[in-house]
Amino acid sequence: MATNRLPLAVVGGGFSGAATALHLTRRLRDGPPVILFERGGRVGPGLAYATVSPSHLLNVRAANMSAFPDDPSHFERWLADDAGQPGDRHPTEAGLFASRQLYARYLCDTFDEQGGTRAQRIGAEIVDCRRSQDGFVLTSADGAEYQVAAVVLTTGHVAPPPAEDTRHVTDPWDPAWLAGLDPSRPVLIRGTALTMVDIVLTLREVGFGGPVIALSRRGLLPQAHRASPPWPLPTLEPRGRKTVLGVMRRLRREVALAAKEGVDWRAVVDSIRPITAELWQGWDLDERRRFLRHARRWWDVHRHRMAPTVADQLAGELEMGNLRIEKGRLFELKPGSDGVHVAWNGPGGEQRLLCQRVVEAVGLTSMREVRPGLIDRLMARGLARLDPLGIGLDVGDDLSVRGADGTVVSGLWALGPMVRGTFWECIAVPDIRRQAAACAALVAAEQRGK
Ligand SMILES: Cc1cc2nc3c(=O)[nH]c(=O)nc-3n(C[C@H](O)[C@H](O)[C@H](O)COP(=O)(O)OP(=O)(O)OC[C@H]3O[C@@H](n4cnc5c(N)ncnc54)[C@H](O)[C@@H]3O)c2cc1C
Predict the structure, then answer these.
(1) How far apart are CA 246 and CA 283, in angstroms?
(2) Kind and range of the H or E element at 425?
(3) Domain that holds residue 250
(4) Residue to mutate, 61, 155, 371, 393, ligand 1, most ligand atoms under 8 Å from C-beta
(5) I need a labelling partner for 218 at 20 to 30 A (CA). Which of 77, 122, 367, 378 fits?
(6) Residue 308: CB within 6 Å of ligand 1?
(7) How far is C-alpha 239 from the geometric centre of its chain's CA atoms?
(8) 294 and 313 inside one domain
(9) Per-residue pLDDT tens for 216-263?
């Protein structure tokens, strides 16, 4: 069948982009070339796995981290063949957890081996995208233009805008903030979820032994993984599934039922994973807002869990009093000549603290805060729009991007965390790998139809 020979572009070379490019090359063996643009140069790690801290572990068991939905043991086989480094894999009673650095190596190796010659990588940031007669023209930051037939957007997590004062750290993944820490003065982390845990581990790794205070409204900490037998998907009555409260009540009942049979709540939380996106999509906007406001934190700490090794380290920090968890609502954050002054209202009333850094770890930067760049240009050109909650890009069920007027922009697709507002459950590898495979199939079908 005739195919359009213009290349297909994937923009963003983190997990989502690497997986999509691999699936595209598999699908279109004799089809158009695939170009993967990654501004960081290295294809695979993206934000999540680019960490330089060996203590940062995957928060998903190795058994669930294969890049391919149709080959679930691919990562485990790679691990078995890899000589490894001391400390890069942690066998626990809940399964094997690998370091994120090791996983980055897996992604790079897999991409080199399988994407190799068919997927061309270009180390450039794409800053604009406009329609052309045959598809799209992409412009990179250095002014080069690329004519392509279709574009898959996989630009991933949105970097938060920087604060005016560098002691107020909005991007915890940029290690610059770790320089020049005073060992005796406190660091305050805003947020008590997985990013907070990463930050504490990094602080200890760079030798900071001083006090760390983590503050969030409810002070909820992520739960740890545990071995548990699988639990079947509970039936959710049509009326009950329409509301957040209905779903939560149903889950609580199921957890109680499982407990009677000696099965841990984790199995119940995991059991609804195949339908989480469906539940989210079944909620109207008010319900989705209700979830974000009242249930999200609770859901996140139960759903996104820590490796047991990491949980032990955190427990040690808490026991020794080196890490203190505070509940409360921050109402003041003022950098001054002597440090950053923060104040919050907690259960014991108003609390004040002078600290050397305040590090943001609240997660989920909204696309409304997007900085000038590709997404901004796509929206200005009417080729994309935000989902109604402003969390990410608005896409159809088939991952096709919706333009300013709500109609599908033919040939433009998006997947991964950037479409979280549409699916919610699409930020971890087991979900993204399915999206990447599905998207590649759709793009390939469209190309064959041309
Ligand atoms: C710290 C952290 C740890 C995590 N750990 C796990 C885990 O253990 N297990 C799990 O399943 N999930 C984990 N996740 C979830 C994670 O979202 C996914 O696993 C996945 O890595 C998301 O990949 P992505 O490619 O969509 O996004 P990103 O990782 O954000 O990658 C996007 C890439 O696009 C590039 N880019 C952006 N804009 C442009 C542009 N205009 N031009 C060119 N390049 C561009 C960026 O440089 C980046 O490399 C973690 C997430 C984080 C943040």
Answers:
(1) 11
(2) none
(3) 240-303
(4) 155
(5) 367
(6) no
(7) 31
(8) no
(9) 999 999 999 999 899 999 999 998 899 999 999 999 999 999 999 999
